[in-house]
Design brief:
- The protein has 666 residues and is α+β, with helices and mostly antiparallel strands.
- The protein folds into six domains: 100 residues, Rossmann fold; 151 residues, D-amino Acid Aminotransferase, Chain A, domain 1; 69 residues, 2-Layer Sandwich (Dna Ligase, domain 1), CATH 3.30.1490; 125 residues, D-amino Acid Aminotransferase, Chain A, domain 1 (2-Layer Sandwich), CATH 3.30.470.20; 125 residues, 2-Layer Sandwich (Glycoprotein, Type 4 Pilin), CATH 3.30.700; 67 residues, OB fold (Dihydrolipoamide Acetyltransferase, E2P) (Beta Barrel), CATH 2.40.50.
- It is built from 17 helices and 40 strands.
- A nine-stranded antiparallel beta sheet has the order 14-13-10-11-12-15-23-21-20. Strands 25-26-27-28-29-30-31-32 form an eight-stranded antiparallel beta barrel, surrounded by four helices. The chain has a five-stranded parallel beta sheet with strand order 3-2-1-4-5.
- Helix 4 runs antiparallel to helix 5.
Length: 666
């Protein structure tokens, strides 16, 4: 077994590998760029070596710099994580030449399966069902349009060396094929140093289901069940679960056996994933094989009890798999929610900045439930514009799917993140969405259920009553605290009681609140009674309490005379007033927001790649105005309506902040 390994990656996956290596008694070496000098992975490792400037193409994916770090540290093996150099055969070759073990598959398997064009040809030859498409190299946008017409729209334009949703576009028309080809090519060159593109048929209403395989160097290979990865945004996975709520035992077995056959056909060893598209009739088609550890591997670990990172290390050290296919059993259900530094209220655009508050829920591992949080950040740390925006992977496990969802709801409720935009509200909303709860999901779920973007959840019915009761309780505790400070409590047993009006967003909810020996009772106009118990006091950012037998966790922030409440995707200000104050407040004028209709504002921090218009030019609705790159993704900004460009404030190469003015219109 190895004495020391180097992790050629950063963030949460580097931290994840360090944890297993530590458990195995193996020393670890981290590498870091200027932007990651204080990163968690650099702090956790036994050693940390600086390798260059923030951009990945000047640090993390420069093979010579990584090899220099390996020589300096004396590491005997390297775990590449995912992304970066994990599927780069030249890196595997360099390690082999240096006599350093690669904790991954053989170079030949990386070359065969890492290239999506080659892998599809091999899969077809091995009898694996594949999606129709054009597997040859595409020279330019004109050829891309010609091929797209032949395959038949809609088509998927993909980078041959791609992954993580980068270098990928769906095209429904010639114009989209032309534009998508160029954007995919640019992203592929920037992220992977390989701008080759291929095109395949886009299967409508598909499910994205993948099979985890694990093989050793002695000819043994098993599959560890499947993962459902259909909740995606911009072709990037957001929520995964294992097993899939859609597969039956026969389909699972068929997919697993095909995945193993493909792995064995290329002499695979280590952990890998074979991805399939599955239609409504459970017909499945090979998409690609990822010759590395997947982001979503924790859900497989939770339902199998197998540490995939440990097995990768043992396989790289020459050991045999300690189990056969008949030994693999799937236990319970696991769900993973990817927490991204992306603002769901601004079209999920990237957000950067300092994590002024980062408090994940407590991790637990019990016979009937588990909560796991794989992360690479800490409170006070910076989210950089140079890398992937994922902050953490929150996972829950329970004996069945309903239990895993319930655990995830509670874990998301208790997860506190402040200082940046993030997708926690969206993840919470999905957990409560009837379609997700039923398991009737496809890769089009987000586009179909949130066609105009995510604008938050409007609570109604009992949920509205629950939150009104919480707001009234908080108001009561705040007034009691003030009375204690002033000494008024000596003369008044309570300072809040009787009739009140709770304002939640646009809702006006009259209540009567009263404290009893069994808790706080809140009575609504329709006669509904709720009894609330909690030890919350002003200053706490999480309200934890019980309404009857139901636990409720609400993120809170006192603001002036009211409070900000966030719960299950809802985010609003709550104000509790006396009936008279409510009457007077209704007469106050509303503040009118400034008019920005004639401005193009930068929706996220990023770099202007190009400006596609000039001053005095008339533009049409939907016309491309400029392209901004953020976190390795190109974002095309378009005109919302017809107009004339009056002034341009930015040019190619300029760094922009959120809401910086890019151009003005007449």
């Amino acid at each position: 077994m190895f004495d020391k390994i180097l992790i050629a990656n950063r963030g949460e996956i580097a931290c994840r590998v360090i944890k297993t290596a530590r458990k195995m008694g193996i020393a670890t070496v981290a590498i870091y760029s200027d932007a990651d000098a204080n990163a968690l992975h650099a702090r956790m490792a036994d050693e940390a070596i600086h390798i260059g400037p923030p951009p990945a193409n000047q640090s993390y994916i420069v093979i010579d710099k990584v090899m220099a770090a390996i020589r300096e540290s004396g590491a005997q093996a390297v775990h590449p994580g995912y992304g970066f150099l994990s599927e780069n055969p030249k890196f595997a070759e360099a390690l082999d030449a240096a006599g350093v073990a690669f904790i991954g598959p053989p170079k030949t398997a990386i070359e065969a399966m890492g290239d999506k064009i080659t892998s599809k040809k091999i899969a077809a030859e091995a009898g694996v069902s594949t999606v129709p498409g054009y597997m040859g190299l595409i020279a330019d946008a004109d050829e891309a349009v010609k091929i797209s017409r032949e395959v038949g729209y809609p088509v998927m334009i993909k980078a041959s060396a791609g992954g993580g949703g980068k270098g990928m576009r769906i095209a429904w028309t010639d114009a989209e094929a032309r534009e998508g080809f160029q954007s995919s090519k640019n992203e592929a060159a920037s992220s992977f140093g390989d701008d080759r593109i291929f095109i395949e048929k886009f299967v409508t209403q598909p499910r994205h289901i993948e099979i985890q395989v694990l093989a050793d160097r002695h000819g043994n290979c098993v599959y560890l069940g499947e993962r459902e990865c259909s909740i995606q945004r911009r072709n990037q996975k957001v929520i995964e679960e294992a097993p899939s709520p859609f597969l039956d035992a026969a389909t699972r077995k068929a997919m697993g056996e095909q995945a193993v056959a493909l792995a064995q056909a290329v002499g695979y060893a280590s952990a890998g994933t074979v991805e399939f598209i599955v239609d409504g009739d459970r017909n499945f088609y090979f998409l690609e094989m990822n010759t590395r550890l997947q982001v979503e591997h924790p859900v497989t670990e939770l339902i199998t009890g197998i540490d995939l990172v440990e097995q990768m290390i043992r396989v790289a050290a020459g050991e045999r798999l300690p189990f056969a296919q008949d030994d693999i059993r799937l236990h319970g259900w696991a769900i993973e929610s990817r927490l991204y530094a992306e603002d769901p209220y601004r079209g999920f655009l990237p957000s950067i900045g300092r994590l002024s508050r980062y408090r994940p829920p407590a991790e637990v591992a019990e016979p009937t439930r588990a909560v796991r949080n794989d992360t690479g950040v800490f409170e006070g740390g910076e989210i950089s514009m140079f890398y992937d925006p994922m902050i953490a992977k929150l996972c829950t496990w329970a004996p069945d799917r309903a239990g895993a969802i319930a655990e995830m709801r509670s874990a998301l409720d208790a997860f506190e993140v402040e200082g940046i935009g993030h997708n926690l509200p969206f993840l919470s909303a999905v957990m409560d969405h009837p379609r997700f709860v039923s398991g009737q999901i496809t890769t089009a779920f987000i586009a179909e259920e949130y066609p105009d973007g995510f604008e938050g959840v409007e609570p109604a019915g009992r949920t509205l009553h629950l939150l009104a009761a919480v707001a009234a309780f908080m108001k009561m505790r705040k007034e009691e605290r003030a009375a204690q400070i002033s000494g008024a409590m000596e003369h008044h047993k309570r300072t809040v009681g009787g009739d009140w009006v709770v304002f939640l967003g646009g809702a006006r909810i009259p209540v009567t609140i009263d404290e009893t020996g069994e808790g706080t009772q809140v009575v609504f106009e329709d006669g509904t009674h709720l009894r609330l118990t909690s030890d919350w006091v002003p200053g706490r950012t999480l309200f934890r309490g019980r309404i009857g037998d139901e636990e409720i966790i609400v993120k809170t922030e006192l603001i002036g005379v009211g409070a900000r409440l966030r719960y299950r995707g809802a985010d609003f200000r709550a104000v509790v007033r006396t009936p008279r104050h409510a009457e007077l407040a209704a007469r106050m004028p509303e503040k009118v927001p400034p008019d920005t209709s004639k401005l193009l504002l930068c929706p996220m921090p990023g770099l202007v790649v190009r400006i596609d218009v000039e001053v005095g030019q008339e533009v049409q609705e939907g016309q491309t105005l400029c392209t901004v790159e953020a976190m390795k993704m190109e974002n095309i900004l378009r005109a919302e309506r017809k107009g004339v460009v009056a002034k341009i404030h930015a040019g190619a190469g300029d760094s922009m902040g959120v809401d910086d003015v890019i151009m003005e219109f007449e």
